[in-house]
Amino acid sequence: MARERNGHNRGVAEARWEGLSWRVSEVFTPAVPVSAEELFAGRAQQIDRAIDAINQRGQHAIVFGERGVGKTSLANTLSSRLVNHKGERALAPRVNCDATDDFSSLWRKVLTQIRLTETTRAAGFAGSEQRRIRTAADAFPGGERITPDAVRDLLARLGHGRVVVVIFDEFDRLADSDARRAMADTIKTLSDHGVAATIILVGVADTVGELIAEHESIERSLSQIRMPRMEPPELRELLDKGTGSLGMKLEPGVRERIADLSQGLPPYAHRLALHATRSAIRAHRLTVTEDDLKHAIRDAAENVQQSLREKYRKAVSSPQAGNLFGQVLLACARARTDGFGYFAAADVRQPMSKIMGKPYGIPSFARHLSRFCQPERGSVLRKEGQKHRYRYRFTNPLMQPFVILKGIVEAGNGM
Hints:
There is one protein chain. By secondary structure, this protein is α/β, with parallel strands linked by helices. It is 46% helix and 13% strand. It has helices spanning 2-27, 44-55, 71-78, 103-113, 148-158, 177-192, 232-245, 252-261, 266-282, 290-302, 306-316, 325-333, 345-356, 366-372, 399-411; strands at residues 60-65, 94-96, 115-121, 129-135, 165-169, 198-204, 222-227, 249-250, 287-288, 343-344, 381-384, 391-394. The strands form 4 sheets. It has a 5-stranded parallel beta sheet with strand order 2-5-6-1-7, with helices on both faces. Strands 10-12-11 form a 3-stranded antiparallel beta sheet. Strand 11 and strand 12 form a beta hairpin.
């Protein structure tokens, strides 16, 4: 009997570990943005600025920054924070833009998400009430063209007594210049007429001008919210929220190391935390150790998108023995950058010398920097400025931490 009870207890315990392993991939999501507010971390300043724009009639917002810094996660969780003085949640449809959209198709996506209830009473004194649910898109039947003035009129009616926020994510994918211009016109007419509705545009860009045409004409009405890379305290908060929700914790050194390796990009913090916590769970531990992180680094380096792996291979491959492409790219990944991710050749000198174990001057790797910007090397870097004053940046920000992880794995010590 005791043997049966012990076997049952072991089975229950094993099921709990399996359940925890399943939950890890719901908490740490390197491939998709965060959608649960309780798992969203940091970005207090950006959230405050977005909410300020929403609360000020005539104000709208544009959220921009590098790929992978968490813009969509902010958009996903913003609407859940919006309630009016009665405790009612905001009407906050969010749509993704794509290259095939025009202005009408964009707004039709939005209006399809807005459901309206019509109440009618049957004929006679005792007629019963009948309710019919339709969408706001029904206001434009038969593919009717939607104009900025029509949007203003509809949002003005929807905005009576409630908070209305419309979020357009991946706005950088919108190829139609007329649609971008019409969106600027919409923001202007909403602002000029004081309509109680807010438009928020979200997209990959270095400047507002890259996202929306005629932006100068609406600057007064547009709160420009730049999303920089996450600071170490924000990444630590992300990690603590995730592991805390699992009833787990990271050793302090592990938490700091993940924050450093992620280079301010939340997808990599999620990726490393996912693999590290899985390693601990396999060992039936609730504390994630340095050994777990060693496994995570190898797993994370091996399980990134194939397109990223191919770009890396193209950048560093060479038939010439003793070439330095891999080492120079790693030094670029470890170079000190400005707030926009740019570094100069001089910033590569110190990490390059550390990697090679002896002093290296700029002439020894300047040619490599130039070639990394060319298609034959996958254009893994981009450069701006004038000769002798060029500044460089990874074309895809997610390449930078991947290069660092590859460097650690190839060094053979796992850390």
